[in-house]
Amino acid sequence: MKISLRRIAKSYGGQCVFRSLDFEVEFEHTLALVGPSGGGKSTLLRLLAGLELPDSGEIRIDGDLIPSDEAGLRAHRQKLGVVFQAYNLFPHLTALQNIRLPLEQVHRLSTQEADSRAKQFLARFQLLDHAEKQPAQLSGGQRQRVAIARALAVDPAFLLLDEPTSALDPEMTAEVLDVIAELRTSEKPIILVTHEIGFARHTADLVALVADGGIPECSPATEFFDRPQHATTRRFLQRVLKY
Amino acid sequence: MTADFLFDRPRKPAGLFGKSFSIALLLAGYSALCWLAFSESLRNWEKVWGYRETFWNGWLTTVQISAAALILSSLIGGATALARRSSFLPLRYTAIAYVETVRGLPLMVLVLFGFYGVANALGWQDRVSAGIVILSLFSGAYIAEMIRSGIESVGRSQWDSARAIGLTPTQTYRFVVFPQVLRQTLPPLAGQFSSLIKDSSLLYIIGIPELTFAANQVNSATYSTFESFVPLGICYLLLTLPVSLWTKRLEKKTRYET
User: Is the Cβ pair A136, B256 closer than 8 Å?
Assistant: First the structure.
């Protein structure tokens, strides 16, 4: 999978996140975005997801430009899967209905097809027993796994995960990370924003540091952690690995 | 002795004795109050009984007006709530002006101006339909605010998730936002409906033969004020109490965590 950003500018209400970001990367399985809070990781992910438009500049994924009109953006969003920190699921629908909704309404599967596809994905993540539960009856880890199942069920071109474990306790974090690690080799390309440095090191092909509106370093995981080239990276790693 | 018992939540359900004793005490107090208020005055039932048909017709009219206004005010409330969120400025401002004006005025003023001012100028002579529209406009402003706050209580992550899975704005409202808004606003909405039933009593000032109008009529014909207005109160309670009980049940049923 290949991503290229050219002269991307993005600000929110006077707060400039990117002034002029140029970034090109090609990876096979997993790209991890790490960096300090407010550095622009999530903004970058939302731009790739087509949830935000850059103020200027262009983004290409595998050579295709992300469109800037709402209809085009929607078509772009339909081709990928996104999982946020929390509250991904719709609280008034059961786990099964949550997965069926995009299959039926966006991808126009018949009720029967959607149902069997949704169950197939629930079964894959050992969630079939919880199919009829609403999100409030599920644990945090189960909710995130259902969200991942929903994102995968539509057969997306790639997955975008925005700190999928940051709202979970360590045990549930492990449960969700196991699922992501398992997807790594067999499945779609994943772009993952994460605070789990150890996980990034073990699972990602490439790790990119997003800080101060730029991407000063992007290298294979072992290199990134063992031989960081950039001073910002070293400072960041020092801080997060201190304890 | 502290006043903690005022604020404590009960630790266990009340026993049968405690319950029946409290209810008996309450009923005794209630009866004493009624005795004090009405024992001297409620003596003239024969004359009022002769007008039972007037009451019945008035009650029917009140039920009809309330039912029609209930539907119309829900439609007006829903449309206004959406208009208040519209990106088209004149529409948004119209909605805001409407809500603020209506909520700032007493219903009596609205009824008088609405009928003798606006409806007359438009040549709209039918009092009942004009009354239904005025009452719906009044109630609709409150319902609009309930629905709007319901929509705003749907978190940003829900809108994001809906967009991320590729739903259109219309689909987002239909499958994600409205079902949640409905659950949130049903209890206050049911309370508003009970207000609406009572508020319909003010339509007597433009001469609609509803329940309060009927009671007034019986009163002036028989000179038996309390004998006319006690049945009036009971008739309203017959409509509002079920709505109130239904509200309680809804509140229990629709509670869910987010």
Answer: yes
- Lookup result for tokens 């029946």: B20
On whether residue B66 sits in a domain, the answer given is yes
Condensed to tens digits (0 to 9), the pLDDT of residues B126-139 reads 999 999 999 999 99
- CA–CA separation, A82 and A173 (whole Å): 18
Could you state, in order of their start, the residue ranges of all structural domains in chain A?
2-80+160-240, 93-155
Residue to mutate among B159, B160, B165, with most A CBs inside 10 A, is B165
Burial (CB count <10 Å: 0-12, 13-18, 19+), residue A118: buried
Is residue B22 within a helix (H) or strand (E), and if so which, with residue range? helix B16-38
What average pLDDT does range A69-84 have in this prediction? Answer: 92
| C-alpha–C-alpha distance, residues B31 and B109, integer Å | 37
Give the domain extent around B88: 52-254
Lowest-confidence pick of A197-201, B11-15, B20-24: B11-15
Question: Strand, coil or helix: what is A56?
Answer: strand
How far apart are the C-alpha atoms of A218 and A229, rounded to whole Å? 10
Q: How far apart are CA B196 and CA B73, in angstroms?
A: 9
Please choose, from the candidates B177, B122, B256, the residue with its C-alpha nearest in 3D space to the C-alpha of residue A138: B256
Task: Report if residue B42 sits inside a domain.
Answer: no
Euclidean distance between CA atoms B78 and B188, whole angstroms: 14
Mean pLDDT of the region A200-226: 89
Assign domain A2-80+160-240 to a CATH class: alpha beta
**Under an 8 Å CB criterion, which residues of B touch A?**
155, 157-158, 160-168, 171, 175-176, 179-180, 183, 256-258
Sorted by sequence, the CB contacts under 8 Å of residue A34 that are 6+ apart come out as A41, A193, A194, A195, A197, A200, A207, A208, A209, A210, A236
What is the CATH classification number for the domain harbouring B160? 1.10.3720.10
Query: What interface predicted TM-score (ipTM) does this complex get?
Result: 0.88
List the single residue in B162, B166, B179 with the smallest CB-CB distance to A78: B166
Q: Give A123's contacts (C-beta < 8 A, 6+ positions apart).
A: none
Phi–psi pair at A60, nearest 5 degrees: -120, 135
| Number of domains forming the structure of chain B | 1
Task: Output the six-digit token pair for B93.
Answer: 């401002």
Q: Convert the pLDDT of each residue in A154-173 to its tens digit.
A: 999 999 999 888 888 888 88
List the one residue out of B196, B160, B200, B190 whose CA is nearest residue B176: B160
Note whether residue B137 is domain-resident.
yes
**Model pLDDT for residues B24-33, shown as the tens digit of each residue:** 999 999 999 9
Q: What is the pLDDT of residue A90?
A: 94
Mutate to test the interface with B, among A105, A155, A162, A191 (most CBs of B within 10 A): A105
Does residue B1 lie in a domain region? Answer: no
